[in-house]
Write a structure and sequence with these properties.
Blueprint (H helix, E strand, L loop, with lengths): L2 H14 L6 H12 L5 H19 L1 H16 L7 H22 L1 H5 L5 H21 L11 H12 L8 H11 L4 H29 L8 H28 L3 H20 L4
Length: about 270
């Protein structure tokens, strides 16, 4: 992987990780358009660590408060009804599905799931489901109203993001909208929920690259550059999306997903990209 590829892919990762348009699909599609080799699932997972650092810093006050309250609630039962203590449990429970499915289908995720036809189809299908969520979602619930059931539903939807093209934020925000959450509340919970899964996945794949099991075409320098750029651009993307969803719908992302999905399928079928 050249330094130019690392720069481009790092920016792409940062731009697309939090927008509901699928960063994993873009890290597969952009190299295909440019005629570069597929960077692989391991590279994608490791660069996601950069965007996760952005989440940790952006939501540092929320995370510290949730962690303190959750730990205190283990010793003091009366604290378990507080929102921050409940959020700690919701994040943990919501992470279980993607952990189970991620381990069960690891080989398929790293090989067959990176098929361009599958990526394009997933972009279109999730885009249309997101559009339906926009149409029927009541959007009258804030973060404080989230329940255990909501945490599990959104957690299972996060597991769908193991398929490139679905989008972690796209699937979880869509589930949140179906559950009646406000757009910004759905996005906020989506970002918090993603932290354990992405951090664990990234660390596991970093171990694979370090041991030489994967990522033979990725040098330490290119990996550092891509991850650092993903952090910087990702931080800006979080701030942008939360402001955007406070006053606007996700329809623009639906249009983009469907259009990109169609282009990918057509170009793959015609042999222009492979």
């Amino acid at each position: 992987m050249s330094l130019l590829e690392a720069i481009v892919l790092g920016i792409v990762q940062g731009l697309t990780e939090f927008l509901p348009i699928s960063s994993t699909a873009h890290l597969r599609i952009v190299p295909a358009f440019a005629g570069w080799e597929d960077p692989g699932a391991a590279f994608t997972a490791v660069t996601q660590l950069g965007t996760m650092v952005a989440v940790l810093i952006y939501f540092r006050e929320d995370l510290l408060r949730i962690t303190r309250t959750w730990l205190a609630s283990l010793r003091t039962p009366r604290l378990r009804k507080e929102l921050d203590a409940r959020m700690g449990w919701y994040i943990l429970l919501g992470t279980i599905p993607i952990g189970i499915f991620g381990l069960a289908f690891k080989d398929q995720i790293e090989t067959g799931a990176r098929d361009l036809y599958l990526n394009g189809t997933a972009l279109i299908v999730l885009g249309l489901v997101l559009l339906q969520a926009e149409r029927v979602g009541k959007r009258n619930r804030g973060v404080e109203s989230i329940t255990t059931r909501d945490g599990l539903v959104v957690g299972f939807s996060q597991a769908l993001a193991l398929v490139p093209g679905v989008s972690r934020s796209g699937a979880t925000i869509t589930a949140g909208l179906f559950l009646g959450l406000e757009r910004a509340a759905a996005a906020r919970f989506s970002f918090l929920l993603s932290i354990p899964a992405v951090v664990l996945s990234g660390l596991l794949e970093l171990g694979s690259i370090s041991s030489g099991e994967e990522g033979q075409n990725t040098s330490v320098l290119t990996l550092i550059v891509a991850t650092a750029l993903a952090f910087v651009v990702g931080y800006a993307s979080i701030a942008f999306l939360l402001r955007f969803l406070a006053t606007r719908s996700t329809v623009i992302f639906v249009v983009y997903r469907v259009a990109l999905g169609v282009v990918v399928i057509v170009l793959a079928a015609s042999g222009v990209i492979s």
